[in-house]
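quick one if you have a minute, typing this from the bus. below you get a single protein, a line of residues and a line of whole numbers that encode the local backbone shape. could you go over both lines and see whether the tokens make sense for that sequence. anything you notice is useful, everything is just below.
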Amino acid sequence: MRKRTIRKMLMDRWLYFMLTPGIIYFLVFKYAPMWGIVIAFQDYSPYQGITGSPWVGVKHFSRLFGDPTFLMLLKNTLSLSLMNLLLVFPMPIVAALMLNELRNQRFKKVIQTMIYIPHFMSWVIIIGIFFVVFEMQDGLFQSMLAAVGLEKFTIMMNPDLFRPVYILQAIWRETGWGTIIYLAALAGVDQQLYEAARIDGANRFKQLWHVTLPSIRSTIFILLILKLGDILELGFDHVFLMLNSLNREVAEIFDTYVYTMGIIQGSFSYSAAVGLFKSLVGLVLVLLANHFSKKFGEEGII
């Protein structure tokens, strides 16, 4: 058995060779840093190091859960995460279904390219575009308000508008990129299923509902499971660039809080405890989502 395995590995040696960079990446940047988790249970000091810092058990977790800021962080993070799940996640599916219905291939490629482009722009550029358009006194939005006789007002500094603006930016940037996976899944749908549906008298909408969506259901479930794993991982840069003293009560999330406590204030152990809490919540949600996906007859990811 061992000789057969070794012989098979030697036959596929070039495939394993191509796999090596990916393995090295995950070992160096994903698994090796996990050793740093232990500082969440220490009063870590850079001078004493991980091995020399005193152990304090769950002291930092008790501090986190007892801090009044925790409820604000949890509320803000979950609010944005649920809005992401309900509004941002379905948009690539809708866009892919609409693109799949286009018969003019040239027009389809033009639309695909247009909605892909925002993904390749950093959040710094996107936030900068929004600021120039909506916030500058002589910008497009403020000039339009003045032209129709309305009073100028701020959007990105308004705490009531923070979440809608955040979601609109996320939809604009991520929808096009997400369609790539769904279009690939749609390309694998057996065309004979559509022919059979047309013979049975199904119109375009019924074909979409009874053939297309069931055919990509597995892909949707897998991406949903992965999305649930990141439910507390909203992305530091996006929120941080929009965060200011006026909207902090609705914009401060775990990611920005870790930056403030760990980098700015130097509370390394406390910020590590916050990060570990996020990771554990994500792990539990992935396992639960994977379990329920199997209940629905899907394979899941584990």
